[in-house]
Fold:
Amino acid sequence: MVVIVETYTEAINPPSATTTITHDQLWNGLLYGIQHHDLFLPSFKSCTTLSHTDEEIVVSQVLGEHATLGHSPGEHRNTFKLSPPSKFDGTEKDTTDFHFIGIIGEGPGGEKDLYFTLVHEWNAKGIEKDSEEHKEARKNNYHPRDLARAYVENTRRMVEKGEL
Structure:
């Protein structure tokens, strides 16, 4: 077995940003995104919030044809442990093979110099480290970059519309 870890960090308020996002706005945008993956990624056919407390969000997501490691078509139940206002930690209840973490952090520029890091981790059973299958799995797997960017872009749109 090999563990595949993919990470991506997105600058929240680069000089080219049309609207500045605050830490609280980003956190609320991420909570929205967790509950609406189907709005960001075409492979998600639906996303239903089963429960939401200050400590945890549980969602049921239905995937269509989704050719990535650790995900098969059909329903997946995900639990996100929340550490407001900076971290969520998600796992699939159906399997222990997939884990994802989102973290908001400040850069040296202070409270407006925000970054969002998304980590995806798969326990790839049956794949040997450095094998051709391992290389293909890393190359063809879903990377957190697209989802991190979608979270940030959607949050910016919501801020611009006055929804956050």
Summary: The two ends are 43 Å apart (CA to CA). Strands lie at 2-11, 44-52, 56-63, 74-83, 87-92, 98-107, 110-124.
